[in-house]
Fold this sequence. Notes:
The chain is an alpha/beta fold. The chain has helices spanning 33-38, 65-72, 87-90, 97-132, 181-189, 197-201, 215-224, 241-245, 252-267, 271-287, and strands at residues 4-9, 23-28, 43-46, 62-64, 139-145, 151-157, 206-208, 237-239. The strands form three sheets. The protein has a four-stranded parallel sheet. The protein has a two-stranded antiparallel sheet with strand order 5-6.
Amino acid sequence: xxxxxxxxxxxxxxxxxxxxKKFDVKYIDNINESILSKIKNDFLIFNNEDKEYEKLNINKxxxxxxxxxxxxxxxxxxxxxxxxxxxxxxxxxxxxTMEYILKRIIDFTILIPLLIISLPIVLYSAYRIKKExxxxxxxxxxxxxxxxxxxxxxxxxxxxxxxxxxxxxxFATKDDPRVFKWGRIMRKTRIDEIPQIINVxxxxxxxxxxxxxxxxxxxxxxxxxxxxxxxxxxxxxxxxWAQVNYPYGDSVEDAYQKLMYDLYYIKNWSLWLxxxxxxxxxxIMISRKxx
Length: 291
């Protein structure tokens, strides 16, 4: 099946390789009648600050980049300039009381069968960790930042050798040499996240939400990514919209992309979106397509 073409007027937003799996992209500097006449099932995107799109025939597939990302790529555009106002960003609000109650019901509805199903996996993982990396603990405990910027102790199965960050914090990379064999399998299948059930029980996390980050990285990201602190208006999650749509990242640009997915999730929270993330997470675990 042929992918639809995006004709992008300008490069305010640079389409990623993940985006290009869904659409072909062609960048142009400006438009003319010749280009407009050739648009059929393609999308014309005004990827700049011009108001030129307002003069065009609205029946064509013409979008501002903000509206296109929200509708077709399911993420919220974040301007690199924090002084630029965005209606979509301004509409990102914490969960209502009813939404929070529904999320906690979902948390416990999933936790009970997850605890039963995961018990053999937990026991086997503990065995493999001690076998392959006997000098370290089975569980890895680390401070992460949660709702309203408050830190909490996050639990994971240890997937790296002891003292993996003895020099300074480092991003985990795709073929990270610090990760032992079973650790790599756990990361691909998300098994290493199972101990965060403890955090969900304590009310520090949900099953679904933005992934909790370390204070060290957050301080770096907040300097370079506008509106990064918006992700902390809700509690973090074991899995999330960013996790099922974007691979592990090792750069500020990756954090920027994940933030767009996280803010889309918060803004558009619904029971249907929650279920969609659950099924996508199960698929990733079964197919071992995690990164």
